[in-house]
């Protein structure tokens, strides 16, 4: 079936009565004392790739771009999208600025957003509707960054683009209508990795980040936590895929020990306040929880929210999956309150 048809099938399926979903999905998935949300279980069973599937780099990228907006909120017409770019260490980096119509023309808060995709996939296209809704609900500008991807650009090229994005927004704050003291960092999965790294690397800047919002973040490439084994297959993101991403991203095995790749290993003293949004059925669950504990131990104001019944990455399905939408609404409330 053509991908355009599958989008409408997936959206229609999300509107099925819950008893029918439960009947079609079979026995509820229960692992480690948690139960998978019934709508999520239905979607994983009928719309995720079969367990153990490893697509090529291009197939993975195409999948992100085609499917990334299938189940997001409907495009919000009041948010204007502008192209912008800056010069990073390896050349020009494209961005999109999502600006709500009600936002002040100057001194506005902004969230710099880094998309997920294992540092291999994802793009401005795959997360456009997500960023548009974050801007609308969060009442802030959102600058989405099209950082360079592996394997063409292995570590640390892409992460240097992300650091340069923060520096460039600060340097151009007046032109962009941004308050340099109200710049947040956000991202999902690999984008959460990037946001955490930038927060660490720029904690002593003249205008340090104000907030880091990490959705299902990838924080440790040096080892696999227990949740890798618990959720190795069958819950969208799989252990084998994470290993594939890691091999494509790192330039050499020792890079996994570098805090620029694994921020869980980094120094978090003095980093900006954090909000971590973690899925209960996710190989990355435990490293997210561990990072939350590390931040709290360092005295960093930190909110850790574990959404027991969700899978990775729920930010892209919040328009049609009620449990994901509730998590999205909670996240944007934190944006409004803390940015």
Automatic annotation (TrEMBL):
Domain Alpha/beta hydrolase fold-3 positions: 111-315
Signal peptide: none
Keywords, in A-Z order: Hydrolase
GO molecular function: hydrolase activity
Keyword flag Hydrolase: yes
A Pfam family recorded for this sequence: Abhydrolase_3
This protein's record includes keyword Mitochondrion: no
Identification of the protein by name: Alpha/beta hydrolase
